[in-house]
Amino acid sequence: MVLSIALLSRDKDKMEKVLGGISQLGRIPAALFLVDIGHEHIALAEAKRLGITTFGLVDTNCDPNKVDFAVPANDDATKSIAILVNYITAAIEEGLAERQAAKEDDTEEITDDEKERKAAKLLAEAEAEGGRGGARRGGTGTRRRTTGGSVSRGPGGARK
């Protein structure tokens, strides 16, 4: 009994170490990058079943048609893997930074569009008030005289 509890505990710890990051995912990832598609054939099959785009380092001992985007490389050498993974990581970071910048530009454009709409609305309201003669008749009290003798209008009038 004690032996089986120790084995189960060890198996649980091993699974948490290997699969812990996957359990924290809130949604299905958009893409999966595999270093050795021959060794990770179960992950590749699962990704295909879920419709996840796959990228993979493909050596001469693997079929490049199994992944969506094959990167020909030596998937056995540690230095080769490190160089390619660092390069791909840098490209992903650059792409994410560009996407974030594009999102910020989109929000700025929306803000400018909203400002233009508000300005046009205020201008239309001002012209409508001016057409009714609200400020010219003196009923609203928005008319005031400046020291130079010219007429300056407040928020309701068009001239300043």
Overall 3D form: elongated
In the sheet with the most strands, the strands line up as 1-2-3
Task: Give the class-level CATH name of the domain at 25-76.
Answer: Alpha Beta
Number of strands: 5
Our count of helices gives: 3
- What string gives the helices and strands in order? HEHEEHEE
How much strand content do the residues show? Answer: 5-15%
Report the helical percentage.
40-55%
The biggest beta sheet reads: 3 strands, parallel
SS content category: alpha/beta
Mean pLDDT: 78
In CATH, the architecture of the domain at 25-76 is 3-Layer(aba) Sandwich
Topology:
Layout: H1 2-23, E1 31-34, H2 41-50, E2 53-58, E3 69-72, H3 78-132, E4 143-145, E5 151-153
Parallel strand pairs: 1-2, 2-3
Antiparallel strand pairs: 4-5
Walk me through the structure.
This protein has 160 residues and is α/β, with parallel strands linked by helices. Helix content is 54%, strand content 12%. The strands form two sheets. A three-stranded parallel beta sheet has the order 1-2-3, with helices on one face. It has a two-stranded antiparallel sheet with strand order 4-5. The longest helix has 55 residues, at 78-132. The radius of gyration is 33 Å and the shape is elongated.
